[in-house]
Amino acid sequence: MNTLKKRAAKRYLMGLKASFPYRALRYGLRLPGRIYSTYITEPIIKRWIKQSELMVYVHDPKRGLLRPVLEGQRLKWTLRENLSVDATHWLDVIEPLLTKQDIVFDVGTNIGTIANWLANRTKHVHGFEPHPENIEMTRDQVKLRKTKNITLSQLALGKEPGTLQLHVKNFHGHHSLGNTAAGPTVEKIDVEVDTVDRYCSTRGIDRIDFLKIDVEGFEDDVLKGATSMLKDHRIGFALFELRHSILASIDKHSKDIFTPLIENGYSIFTLDGKTLATDELENPPDADYLAAVNPAELVPHLGTSTAPVC
Q1: What is the pLDDT of residues 232-264, one digit of tens each?
Q2: Whether residue 22 has pLDDT greater than 60
Q3: Residue (of 310, 232, 297, 309) closest to 269 by Cα position
Q4: Can you name the residues that pair with 289 across neighbouring β-strands?
Q5: β-strand 103-107 against 124-128: which pairing, if any?
Q6: How far is CA 301 from each of CA 138, 165, 233, 289, 309, rounded to the nearest angstrom?
Q7: What is the average per-residue pLDDT within 161-179?
Q8: In the prediction, which pLDDT does 148 show?
Q9: Could you give the 3-state DSSP secondary structure of residue 264?
Q10: Dihedrals phi, psi of 126, to nearest 5 degrees
């Protein structure tokens, strides 16, 4: 009964946070801070960045997140939303599921903020990032934080080993193996590609407790390359993002992501613990989703977040 009450309370809070009155109130309360950030804080930080040879970081002491502060829209977003990363909401949700015995795969490590956060809560993190500048920033952060339990690989994970072209975008978090709608491609670079199954077999990795995938539309390729691990249920739970505009721009569909999971006995559920029925898998809303063989074992332990979904 207590579990049912907790789940009902979570759903109520999620619905409340999505309501217009709540969002309007939150915006109104933040307005003075936004004005201060725009006309005072932001110009000062920009001047610091330009005048200094040092890397400037923004620190979220509550969650232990650390991210390089770069100029442009991301700096504006950081200051106005008072967040270090846009993954804050799901980090809060999955944190209770992680243990110090877990092996984690961070596919799409980007600049390393999430990988370091995961490393502080688990046994070992394997990070995969094909873009050379992104992985260099990740290595800098690993060195700065003196993180010992991260293995970084400069490669993409896909459905088969080989070499593919990475479409480099203006924003470091939007690079993709396809020409997605996340902005114009400014250049293309060749990157090495491996598969989850091959990487695990060559390194003697028997189980992935948590698989995080953020690869800008190519989540299905990562899962197709993990067929053996999925078939044997050697992946505890996975988290991936679904963005229909990104998928449509590269001729993909949400079912492409769901199929490898469903065919191997995994269920898809939302961050507030609702398992998607078969008909709901046809056109679910843009969101971050979880997958596991037995969601009922995980859902009661999901955390809650007060951070906005960005």
Answers
A1: 999 999 999 999 999 999 999 999 999 999 999
A2: no
A3: 297
A4: 240, 270
A5: parallel
A6: 30, 40, 20, 16, 20
A7: 94
A8: 96
A9: coil
A10: -105, 115
Antiparallel, parallel or unpaired: β 187-194 and 162-168: antiparallel
Strand order across the beta sheet in which 287-292 lies? 150-153, 124-128, 103-107, 208-213, 235-242, 287-292, 267-270
Helix (H) or strand (E) holding 103, with range, is: strand 103-107
Which of the listed CATH numbers 3.40.50.150, 1.10.357.10, 3.40.640.10, 3.90.1310.10 matches domain 88-301?
3.40.50.150
Which whole-number Å values give the CA distances from 175 to 38, 139, 244, 251, 259, in the listed order? 28, 18, 17, 17, 24
First to last CA, the chain: 33
Q: What are the boundaries of each domain within the chain? A: 2-81, 88-301
In sequence order, what are the residues at sequence separation of 6 or more whose Cβ sits closer than 8 angstroms to the Cβ of residue 61?
Answer: none
Distance of CA 185 to the CA centre of its chain: 21
Nearest by Cα to 162 from 184, 144, 140, 177: 177
Residue 62 in tokens:
């509550």
**Distance between CA 262 and CA 268 in Å, rounded?**
8
Q: How confident is the model at residue 274 (pLDDT cuts 50, 70, 90)?
A: very high
> Cα separation of 166 and 249, whole Å?
15
Spatial separation of the C-alpha atoms in residues 303 and 273, rounded to whole Å: 10
Higher-confidence position of 258 and 13? 258
Measured over the CA atoms of residue 22, residue 285, residue 78 and residue 63, the dihedral's sign is positive
- Amino acid present at 89: H
pTM of the model: 0.82
In whole angstroms, give the CA distance from residue 55 to residue 67. Answer: 10
Cα–Cα nearest to 196, from 247, 240, 158: 158
Question: How many residues would you count in the chain?
Answer: 310
Rounded alpha-carbon distances, angstroms, from residue 308 to 91, 173, 287: 12, 19, 12
